[in-house]
Amino acid sequence: MAAVLREKQLLFLGFFISFITAVLSARHHQQRKLYKPPTLKNLNDNFPRQTFDQAFSPYFGGSNLQVRDKGASVDISLNKYTGSGFISQNRYHYGFFSASIKFPAGDYSAGVVLAFYLSNQDVYPRSHDEIDFEFLGHAKRKPWNLQTNVYGNGSVKYHGREEKIRLWFDPTKQFHTYTIIWNSNHIVFLVDNIPIREVTYTKMISPAYPSKPMTLYSTIWDGSPWATDGGKYKVDYKLSPFVASFEKLQVEGCIWNNQTKSSLTPSPSPTMSPAQSPYPSPTPSSAPLFSCTKSGGNGKMDSVEGEDVIRLSEEQRKAMAEIRKEYLTYSYCKDKNRFPVLPPECNSQ
């Protein structure tokens, strides 16, 4: 009897050792496969940084917005009373928009939405343009989700063109850089200088391509009804405040001429159609820009028509393909439950 028991114990021990070995092997394999970003040309080096007072103003949230280091950095936070945010002082028609951001710390940030985006919804509530980075908070042991989205003229027939990327690092531990490039050729979203999504201007997407001047926003707010697992997990205000930090702010582009804008733009009307908009549709990059003034740069690159912003290099395309293969978790172009008839640009992908 004792011999049989000992044999069972040894068998169990063997299974246990095999299990632990398999787990450690899988973990080691995972560590070996951790993504190592390639070294690409750093586009941020081509543009100056702005202090908060040079380029931004408070948007909402009162004391939940704190400007630090003589304007070199700013914190925005969410508590049970309010979120907060800041806004660019100018509207831009195309440009380069970037910030280094450290996300709210902690093991639970469900329901929290941190956003870095361009929009003109205040002028055109029913036919607005928008280009979004949205960072969606997480439940325990789950990562933050990075969601990108593009609207043009209210997105016409299709409301939103979302994609989601799983980040390959912990965004709460240190600052990482998030960049939007927007011009008449394409829209590019970059993380730490790596392109993660490109929306190319084509005839198929032209009705929904952002074409009107927009303002840059940075906000944090409560998105409990939808942000984390479809609203399953809510903001836990016992863990607040949720603080996001911004630094290395860069806003370079074609500043919309306010005088021309006011002379052209009628009072906002909810009945105005995109066809009635005084803002022209995208034009080829070789054509002259209209009614806007390019913001002053450091002379290294044109933020609207420079070679490195109007097209991706082969190295950038390769890096983007690798990221999307490993970390893309959702694309509207693959969602036939949501879109039985996919948006027309999806057919060319």
UniProtKB/TrEMBL annotation:
Pfam family, one: XET_C
Free-text description of this protein's post-translational modifications in UniProt: Contains at least one intrachain disulfide bond essential for its enzymatic activity.
GO BP terms, alphabetized: cell wall biogenesis; cell wall organization; xyloglucan metabolic process
Catalytic residues (UniProt): 130, 134
Region (Disordered): 262-307
Class of this enzyme: transferase
InterPro entries: Beta-glucanase-like, Beta-glucanase/XTH, ConA-like_dom_sf, XET_C, XTH
Compartments where located: Secreted, Cell wall; Secreted, Extracellular space, Apoplast
Keywords: Apoplast, Cell wall, Cell wall biogenesis/degradation, Disulfide bond, Glycosidase, Hydrolase, Secreted, Transferase
Domain GH16: 38-246
A cellular component annotation (GO) from this entry: apoplast
GO molecular function: hydrolase activity, hydrolyzing O-glycosyl compounds; xyloglucan:xyloglucosyl transferase activity
EC number: 2.4.1.207
Ranges annotated as biased composition (Pro residues): 267-285
Similarity annotation: Belongs to the glycosyl hydrolase 16 family.
Entry function: Catalyzes xyloglucan endohydrolysis (XEH) and/or endotransglycosylation (XET). Cleaves and religates xyloglucan polymers, an essential constituent of the primary cell wall, and thereby participates in cell wall construction of growing tissues.
Record protein name field: Xyloglucan endotransglucosylase/hydrolase
